[in-house]
Amino acid sequence: MQWGLQNRLSRIIRPADGRTVMLAVDHGYFLGPTSKLEVPRETIAPLVPYADALMLTRGVLRTSVDPGAGVPVVLRVSGGTSIVGPSLADEGLTTSMEDALRLNVAAVTLSIFVGTDHERQTLLSLSKLVDEGERYGMPVLAVTAVGKELEKRDARFLALCCRIAAELGAHFVKTYYCDGFEKVVEACPVPVVIAGGPRLETFRDTLQLVHDALERGASGVDMGRNIWQDGHPVAAIQAVRAIVHEGHSVDEAFALYTKLAK
Ligand code: R5P
After folding, report:
1. Which residues on neighbouring strands pair with residue 111, listed in sequence order?
2. What pTM, to 2 d.p., does this model score?
3. pLDDT tens digits for 21-44?
4. Which of these is catalytic: 148, 152, 174, 259?
């Protein structure tokens, strides 16, 4: 891997432990003012000190993140759809590599919609982005999106998606945790991080998810709603960090969360 690309990637996935806590705040790109992310700056600012990277669009980056914050950015460069439109899968590239470089981001990211009418266009967008990324030293994160079809989140399907993303050149992949997750990771030759998905019943469930994913080979998390929709988001992200970077058990991390949430 070329130096610039490796340097950027090492700002996201920490070389010390090969792990990362990315904070996903890109939801508005198709959901609009998502609950608890209505005013992005207010949600993001208190969490920045605990995030290894932020995943977001250029609009929220420019308007809602202090350029001096020093946090690495994973810039979402796909979109063009909305939750009220005909198909979430019908995405294209929304942001040029030139703008990503101007914004000095650490990586770019797009969604791929395998198994939909739009798989070809989203996979070719991935290939195009990888070609540009290789040219400019910019890592590409592929997100294996499922749109509204959350039931698609099983090991066979996600392994297919992750492997295709890696084959097309993605430098790391974001997917969902599932039963048999180790098979997804085994078959994917680049690092895999997990999304949190819709909010789980309890925060302990979130910690269990993070713990199980790491145990089965994930390189970390790229989570949103289960952190910032929690009643105590700053405590929540610190507890997630404790599992990812400090090897806490679920019980230890939950005790930390309870203490910090007081
Ligand atoms: C969805 O496509 C967005 O890219 C989110 O970044 C992703 O789903 C992770 O956020 P959450 O943990 O809320 O699922």
Report:
1. 143
2. 0.97
3. 999 999 999 999 999 999 999 999
4. 174
